[in-house]
# Entry
Amino acid sequence: MALQLNDIAPDFTAQTTDGEIRFHEWIADSWAVLFSHPKDFTPVCTTELGYMAAIKPEFDRRGVRIIGLSVDPLDRHAEWAKDIEATQGTAPNFPIIADSDYAVAKAYGMLPASVEGDALQRTPADNQTVRNVFVIGPDKRLKLILVYPMTTGRNFDEVLRVIDSLQLTATHKVATPAQWTQGGDVIIAGSLSNEQAKEIWPEGWQEPRPYIRIVPQPV
# Structure
C-alpha cells in the first residue's frame, strides 16, 4: 500500500554521511524533511542539495531537521559533496543516506519491492521515482508528500512555506488559504462552531460566506 498523509513514517536504520542513524531516534522531538534522489552526480539533484545546504538555517530556525537520500553507496556521496560545493557554493551540511540496498526507497514506496542488484549498475532513469519530499512531524507522522519528475528541480522555499503552515495549524484552530505566507490572514477551522470561534476571536471575523471566516494570523 502506498504511504498516505498521517501514516507513521517508516522507521529504518541506515548508513549516512554523518554515520549510522535510526530514523525515529534521529528525528527525536523535531520536525523533519526527508528528500530523495535517484543517483549521485545528477545535475538537477546537485542544484537541490546545494540550495538546501544554503537555506538550512531557515529549517534550523523552525526546528526542522534535514536529511537527504540517494540510491548510491556512501563513498560516492563524499565525492559528490565536493562537486556540490564547487558548483553550488555550499557543501551539504546535513546527512545523506546511502540507500544502495534500496531498503528506504522500498519502505517509502519509491521503488518496487522487486528491485534488487548492484545500485551502481542502475541508471537515474531506473530510479526516477526516487524524487520525493516527505515532511514528518514530531509525532513521526507524514504531514506532506511531494513527488517531482527528474527534469524539474524542487522548490524548497515552498517546502518552508508549507512547514510554516503545518506548524501554525498544529497549534491553532486555523487553516491557511491559497498563496498564504507568514503574517497573512488565515481561515478559522471548519471544525469550530461560531460559538466556539467567538471564545477565541471575541472581536469577530470577516465572513464573505458562512463557511469562510477570516481572521489575522495568530501570534
